[in-house]
Amino acid sequence: MRELSFRGTTVRFGTGRSALTAVDGVDLVVPQGQVVGLVGESGSGKSTLAKAAVGLVPTTGGEIALDGAPLRTRRDRRRLQLVFQDPHASLDPRMSIGESIAEALPGRRGRAARAAEVARLLELVGLDPARARSLPSGLSGGQRQRVALARALAAEPEVVLADEITSALDVSVQGAVLNLVRDLQRQLGLTMLFISHNLSVVRYVSDVIAVMYLGRIVEAGPADEVLSAPKHPYTRTLLDAAPAFGVALDDPVPADDARLDTEAPSPHDPPPGCRFHRRCPIGPLTRPERTICAETDPQPGAADRPHRAACHFATEILEVPAR
Amino acid sequence: MGRDQWKAALRNPVGAVAAGLLVLLAILAIVAPIIWGDAAEETDPAALSQGSTSDHPLGTDALGRDILFRVLVATRYSLGLALLATAICVGAGLILGVLPAVLGRRAGRLVTATVNLAVAFPGLLLALFFAVVFGVGARGAVLAIGLAGAPSFARLVQTNVAAVSGRDFVAAARVAGVARFRLIARHLLPNIGEPLVVNATVLAGGALLAFAGLSFLGLGVQPPAYDWGRLLGEGLDRIYINPAAALAPGVAVVIAGLAFTLLGESIAQVVGVRAVRRRQPPAMPPAAAAAPAGTDAVLAAEDLRVAFPAPGGGWTHPVDGVSLTVRRGETVGVVGESGSGKSLTALAVAQLAPDTAHVTADRLEVAGVAPLGRTGAEVRELLGTKVAMVFQDPMTSFNPSMRIGAQLAEVTRVHERQGRKPALARAVDRLRTVRVPAPERRAHQYPHEFSGGMRQRAMVAMGLMSTPELIIADEPTTALDVTVQRQVLRLLKDVQAETGAAVVLISHDIAVVGQLCERVVVMYAGHVVEELPVGALGAAAHPYTRALLASVPDLATDRERPLATIPGRPPDPADRPEGCAFAPRCEFADDVCRTRPSLAAVGPDQRAACWHPRTQPLDLALDAVTGGQA
Fold first, then answer.
1. Cα(B59)–Cα(B47) distance, rounded to whole angstroms?
2. Dihedral of the CA atoms B396, B397, B403, B404 (nearest 10)?
3. Which fold has domain B295-386+468-555+563-630?
4. Cβ–Cβ gap B191/A74 under 8 Å
5. Is the dihedral of CA B376, B381, B383, B387 positive or negative?
6. Which of A214, A294, B409, B478 has its CA 20 to 30 A from that of A67?
């Protein structure tokens, strides 16, 4: 297992007026043997970043490197494996789960060796090896996601990228898959990029949390610190909005301020300055003197701020969330 | 598709006829030349160009050969040539269709463009062109018909390949490093096989006809060889003398063409989606006399059942005896996993269950109306203004080609017969109520110009166009981001406070329900398993409710401990265990649980359907509900 690093990674779709920069100069390091959780809303570019890493979408700028060596060829990319969101779509309905897993095994090996390896992997993800011949249609969502994990591990990857792997699962199954991810990571020392829109899920498995907004990483740091003392107001907004027992909807949070925009801006036409400023509870819409937010992009210089926060006022201590 | 479906296809008239004709043709093609081959070549100088006689039932041709024998013997050649042409067409089509997926982007585009251009040429014109290029004769005709059909088949392959290439499992195979050719052979082709097989079968029928046409025109089979087309051409010269000489090969062509087309049709029926026919519902116990309406109940359902015809006969009951009461102004959350029947319960209550569903209840009253047994028009009239629905995906519940304002206005224009202007004014006003910014401008926009959260607001506004007594929100925030989810939930809460309408919130997320609702109804496998006030969630009695609460991580979950899990999976509605449906997954289950428990009081305002209700407070939820977390 090695270290995966994104350096100025940019992904742009389309040209001219319809152009969209889905990932905009992302710098992110996934250290060896650690889980980096990537959170953000839909459209923030987190899935695109993962797809760019495994080569499913071409990058338009920057580089993606494994242990400092840029990934260029298909062979390079194979050292990263992606687990998809929907296990109903990510397994070939015409192929037995054993074949699906065997297909990802690198190198040539005999029939018996392949079968043994498939059995070992199925056992590793908590499935009965005798089921290798069953088709995906005979499996539940949770079991299919286990198969998808086994297939990713079959390729003997240096880094595993998990893209919303519990979002399509029922809550009673989600827990089991999260437990599996955590066990596998500890057992095998996996290096992982774990993507989810759900902060609670990301928190449960991650060592480091990175928050993405409109194609950029706006805050990244050790999981506990990011969640207990966020430095970017967007992280704070996400934390406040997460549903939890005992927190009534009536209790106002800073982001409920009626002066703020309720919608995320269009990624086709991101606002100038700080991209979050029209939704920011401590930005120019609530504090008119903070014109800098609407004029100057806080991204440069983020590396010098705590949690590499893309916020001009990151050093200002934000109130710690009530939970 | 299983073997049973193929058997069923054989039993249906179309399939039976197709199979019968094909078997007949196959036997003829094999046997006829062996038995009658010589007889068909035998010239009879004594009987030239005869009509029907006892020796020659269909007469003879100019050389005195028996036409019946010749038609029968020609089966092999005619079918063989048609199948060969089809094979060429399918082969060339597959190669052309798959090429764009194999080649790079540029070369792929070139192939696609060429195929598109070729599709634009009429097939017969191409066939004639190729027939001239390859020379007149059977070989030329086979190549001509095969190649002329290739572009349209290639296009079909391309479209299907493109559709499957976009799916995750193909992306997953790419990431796993599967080589291109293997990707095509193992992942793409098997998954587009069905439409291709159907199409190839129909193509074979077409090729047969085209071949007969070319031979008839003299461009196909040349003497001394003969096929049906040439026999038809020869017979047509003497149609007034001996009509049978022209009719017999014609009939043969029609029968063979029909056989292929019907075969294609039956394959399509087996592999494609078939409409479920409405079946007579099962006999239900007669509904009890309607109890007098509860004074403050806006929704009262007793023993509500929703049944669907099962594929193998019989009925499945995704909703199996749900009793639910919602008082005026109350906010009730219905929680359950997929397949628990929660959404179907809501749809049945709002009289929106699918057509094939059969809804029964001992008693069902919605806003003072008993909708069961009334016609659709009556129900719409009575409930149209009293019940509002908010769906998970507002994109599909708005008409994409109509402006938002006009869609909202339609509600009052239909139900209150208001004019266009006042209706639109009210629509703008309601959009303002749900805090859509710049409502005048946005009322003139189309649904796709709204973000997910704004569409959901507009959906709520639509419900507010009249004065609903009940708002049913089915997973209204599942497709939304957390920040937007919070806004929409707050909006529902405000609307509820302002209008006094009762809200039923259906969700898989017990935390969301806990935030908005006063009471929670937990569903599992078509039953209500527990009903309790939100404040009592920490004292949940049913093991399923407790497991649900414990298995969802929140921002305070201990990261060092594994999450609680529920072993097994929810039962299939068609195959539910006897007794308590949760028993196979329940650690407390014993023999008593083989009898189905009914809802019984386990605490103040709390009822659970469990033989072994838990009394221990649930530490995690209790802490959270009382807000006692650090």
1. 9
2. -130
3. Rossmann fold (3.40.50)
4. no
5. positive
6. A214
Q: Which of residues 226-245 of A touch B (CB under 8 A)?
A: 227, 237-245
> Does B436 reach chain A within 8 Å, measured CB to CB?
no
Flag whether residue A154 sits within 8 Å of chain B, measured between CB atoms: yes
Is A151 at the interface with chain B, CB within 8 A? Answer: yes
Are B555 and A244 inside 8 Å of each other by CB? yes
Best of A245, A276, A279 to mutate (most B CBs within 10 Å, chain B) = A245
A183 to chain B: nearest residue by CA?
B562
Q: Which pLDDT does position B294 carry in this prediction?
A: 53
For residue B392, what are its two tokens?
A: 């998970």
Interface of A with B in 250-309 (CB under 8 A): 250, 255-256, 262-264
Residue labelled with tokens 């937007």:
B484
Contact: A170, B624; criterion CB under 8 Å = no
Interval B151-172 mean pLDDT: 88
- A95 close to B (CB below 8 A): yes
Rounded Cα distance, B550 and B181, in Å: 47
Taking the model in full, what pTM does it have? 0.82
* Mean pLDDT rounded to a whole number for chain B: 83
To 5 degrees, how large is the angle CA A224–CA A225–CA A231?
A: 140
Say whether A182 and B562 touch across the interface (CB within 8 A). yes
> For the ranges A266-270, B147-151, B358-362, B493-497, which has the lowest average pLDDT?
A266-270
For residue B280, the model assigns a pLDDT of: 56
SS3 content of chain B, % helix, strand, coil (to 5): 55, 10, 35
pLDDT in tens, A285-302: 888 888 999 999 998 888
Between chains, do A200 and B629 touch, taking CB under 8 Å as contact? no
| B178–A92 C-beta distance less than 8 A | no
Asked, as a colleague might, if the bond just before B311 is cis with ω within 30 of 0, I would say no
B53 part of contact set with chain A, CB < 8 Å? no
pLDDT in tens, B94-117: 999 888 887 777 888 898 898 888
Note the pLDDT of residue A32.
93
Q: Which residues of B touch A178 (CB under 8 A)?
A: 553, 563
Nearest CA in chain B to A44: B481
- Choosing among B164, B175, B442, which should be mutated to test the A contact, i.e. which has the most A CBs within 10 A? B175
Yes or no, beta carbons of B552 and A175 under 8 Å apart: yes
Buried b (16+ CB within 10 A) or exposed e, B108-137: eeebbeebeebeeeebeebbbebbeeeebe
The answer for A 174-193 residues in CB contact with B (under 8 A) is 174-176, 178-179, 182-183
Question: What is d(CA B472, CA B388) in angstroms, rounded to the nearest whole number?
Answer: 6
Query: Measuring CA to CA, which residue among B211, B208, B241, B254 is closest to residue B58?
Result: B241
Say if B177 is an interface residue toward chain A (CB within 8 Å): yes
pLDDT number for residue B291:
45
User: Are B505 and A243 in contact, with CB atoms under 8 Å apart?
Assistant: no
B3-48+56-271 fold: MetI-like fold (1.10.3720)
CATH 1.10.3720.10 domain range(s) in chain B: 3-48+56-271
Between the CA of residue A22 and those of A6, A17, A270, B483, what are the distances in Å?
Answer: 15, 14, 11, 20
CB of B323 closer than 8 Å to CB of B599? yes
What's the pLDDT at A319? 56
Parts of chain B belonging to CATH 3.40.50.300: 295-386+468-555+563-630
**pLDDT of residue A159 exceeding 90:** yes
- ipTM of the complex in this document: 0.87
Domains of chain A by start residue, with CATH:
4-213 (3.40.50.300), 232-308 (no CATH)
Q: How confident is the model at residue B145 (pLDDT cuts 50, 70, 90)?
A: confident
